[in-house]
């Protein structure tokens, strides 16, 4: 468990976990995911946190998870798709190696569509995806030093593209 910390950001469904695990394997390091840390801390799945306590509470738990992971982890770290919405979380990323995995709206609808396990896409996935991307794209590019498009790439190709971009 050594090596530099690489942080992956980008929308849900872009492949942060799949690519992150592959990337960690290639670099001979470990993978960590702040969504999993939040679930462990809360003792319940993310849709239940949203439903029971609301998004603000989720973002607060996420902020703590990001802070702890950045302090403790070396290797590859994925953040939840909305982590960049929180200004404090964005600030925590300053000085770290952050890669934005991007995809266009058509690709997002195709890959994720209406996925009830992801509470933000309950109705009209295409419109919600467009709005979500418009609201977040500039935040991803603000925190990231490199952007890697995933649209026409396999997870293996995306992992390689990240290595090439660093
Ligand atoms: C969210 C993305 C999810 C998870 C939560 C909120 C978002 O993470 O953190 O459901 O606001 O986009 P993934 O990007 O890992 O799916």
From TrEMBL:
Residues holding substrate: 35, 59, 81, 136
Binding site for Mg(2+): 17
Record-listed ATP binding positions: 13-18, 118, 153
Compartments in which it is found: Cytoplasm
Family to which the UniProt record says this protein belongs: Belongs to the shikimate kinase family. Belongs to the sugar phosphate cyclases superfamily. Dehydroquinate synthase family.
Biological role stated in the UniProt entry: Catalyzes the conversion of 3-deoxy-D-arabino-heptulosonate 7-phosphate (DAHP) to dehydroquinate (DHQ). Catalyzes the specific phosphorylation of the 3-hydroxyl group of shikimic acid using ATP as a cosubstrate.
Subunit structure as annotated in this protein's UniProt entry: Monomer.
Stated name of the protein: Multifunctional fusion protein
Shown stretch of the complete protein: 1 to 166 of 549
